[in-house]
Amino acid sequence: MVNVAFGIVYGSGLNEYGLYLDCEGGGRSLTSYDRTMSQLFKNIRKRPQTHKFSDGVSSIMSLGEVPPCINSTAQMNWLNRGDVRKALHIPDILPPWDLCSDEVGEQYTTLYPTVKDVYVKLLSLGLRALVYNGDTDMACNFLGDQWFVEDLGLKATTEYKMWHHDNQVAGFYQQYGNITFLTVKGAGHMVPQWAPGPAFHMFQSFITNGSY
Ligand SMILES: *[C@@H]1O[C@H](CO)[C@@H](O)[C@H](O)[C@H]1NC(C)=O
Ligand SMILES: *[C@@H]1O[C@H](CO)[C@@H](O)[C@H](O)[C@H]1NC(C)=O
């Protein structure tokens, strides 16, 4: 069942970053990003009860440059412009900006199977946290983050309820003391890019510790 789901998310031609968005470039071409992702998941793959990539997907992976269905041409061009690099104080010796680095991905070693302890520690020091997801993102599905926050062992201090932006339901959220889990309705993986209004509202509420 898990493999069937992974086949749909990663191999069907749907935009895994936004279920209802078109796949930029059309159809489906597996890229080095897929290889990178499978590399990132290689340790997790060995663990029972977690997701794994179907053999069908990994065996047809091929070289490419960007995540599937995402057109990053504009930001690649912009972030590699001389004047932009200068404005961002990026030294000339550093390589061009890239959306996903094969070099990093292929050499990446998973150090922490979970960051639960990190969250628990930071929260115990009095920091506030916001965990948010676009609810049409299949790459980082909101359920995973919801389960993660629920599993921190903290007491819920609000109901799971709607929040609003421009007189519309903008998603759902629940607070557990200083950590909030929140979804953004209809947004995919790149929440600020695809839902700028609600995203601004969300960040502002978080930063000012105001209500959502
Ligand atoms: C990607 O975006 C660039 C500029 O933003 C555009 O010129 C190009 O046609 C797009 N590519 C595809 C495959 O849609
Ligand atoms: C929440 O954070 C505030 C500071 O932002 C802190 O004073 C308070 O102790 C924290 N509450 C909990 C339950 O950790």
From TrEMBL:
Recorded GO MF terms: serine-type carboxypeptidase activity
Gene Ontology BP term (one): proteolysis
Entry-linked Gene3D superfamilies: alpha/beta hydrolase (3.40.50.1820)
InterPro entries to which the protein is assigned, alphabetical: AB_hydrolase_fold, Peptidase_S10, Ser_caboxypep_his_AS
Family recorded in the similarity comment: Belongs to the peptidase S10 family.
Identification of the protein by name: Lysosomal protective protein
Species the sequence originates in: Dissostichus eleginoides
